[in-house]
Amino acid sequence: MENFARINFLGASGVVTGSKFFIETSEQNIMIDCGMFQGLKALRELNWENLPIHVASIDVVLLTHGHLDHVGYLPRLVKQGFQGKIIGTAPTLAIAEIILKDSAKIQEEEAKKANKEHYSKHQPALPFYTVEDVEKTIALFQVEIDSKWISLSEHILYRFQYNGHIIGATFIELDINGKRFVFSGDIGRRDDYLLNDPKTPQWADFLFIESTYGNKLHPEEDVEDMLSTIITDTLYKKGTLVIPSFAVERLQTLMYILWQLYKKNKIPNIPIFVDSPMGNNVLDVFKRFPKWHKLSPEAYNMMCDHINIVQTYKETWDTIDDPRAKIVIAGSGMVTGGRVLTYLQQLIDVPTTTVLLVGYQAEGTRGRQLLEGAHEIRLFGKYYPVKATIKSIESLSAHADQDDLLNWMSHIKNIPENVYLIHGEPTALDAFRVKIETVYQWHVTIPKLTDVDKVII
Ligand SMILES: [Zn+2]
Fold it and tell me: Which residues surround ligand 1, an ion (CB under 5 A)?
């Protein structure tokens, strides 16, 4: 084996989304994650460019978890000639399938709409990928064997290790010629409601660590207390509490907390509706993979029995018309699409409504506008006055904060040759770099998009 490896930074380098890292060696060419760029337009447009590598030369893709910014580019990789295996844990591949199919459906609908209304500069507008492209991608999926070292070739081994970010999520260790490359994926938090604590790496010659909250600490909030107060208030007003939620993990966590609050007598028996087709599919992944979370099958069933799962669009309207005080959890988390739009169209101008935002609200989204006190919002082409009360809980994040990240890497027994900070906004990356240099005196690099680093192995 030649004694060097080339690391290509193809995404989540200097930015948060689009995770893609390509490692070339004389034995195998390995891609870690294959995500889509999301957010600002300039970033999203990068998705349309072909990768600056020879795609057909990739032997294998290893996935840390199923979020769109880690798997969303896979169908494009297949379109560009990738024919190898896509390996992930069983729940990661299940989540990836749900997310890719949903993403393809949205892309197809958007292209159709653009062609009908002639607003795209491309004629005809083509979807980024189709459901058929996703089917071809899924055909390459291969489930990994639980937390064991697997050999890819004579001098290359890999291992997936639980890291508690979403169901199935792992960090990936790659041993190349005796040197260990560690890719953190997105790191979860300790004491999560549904997931076990993240495992930690014991050794890393080259560490690639996410920095999403590299400059932040999560606020010390009592989530259960805050929720109880908001729910009591909703009952008193005989109103509706609308919680826009991300379908993967957040929605299931909310279901669990609400069920617990009821069991502990902290809230009365207020009807709870969950309206998210994608959220239901993810709930099913929890049922299929009980070893990957803390809920026992009995607890899972009791939780689901306590909550009304809305199935059809007709039931959405029945729920809106239900005159009782109630809680509705619906996608999407930043109010950019999904069933929550229908609820808000009917309820945002009603003073007894409360909207509770439970996650990061990106710039340019309706969620952000509501958070910043907008007096009206646009839904389905029309403006509606905001008469509802807007609340927010920040601390339900599925990401480790700065302390968690430092703690996670503190288990590494050696001094890494290099630490690459990835998956972060520039301010977070730089603050985290200074922190690591101060605390550990390790060598830290912040790679930029399309950077290539050649390392000795
Ligand atoms: Zn993630």
Answer: 67, 186
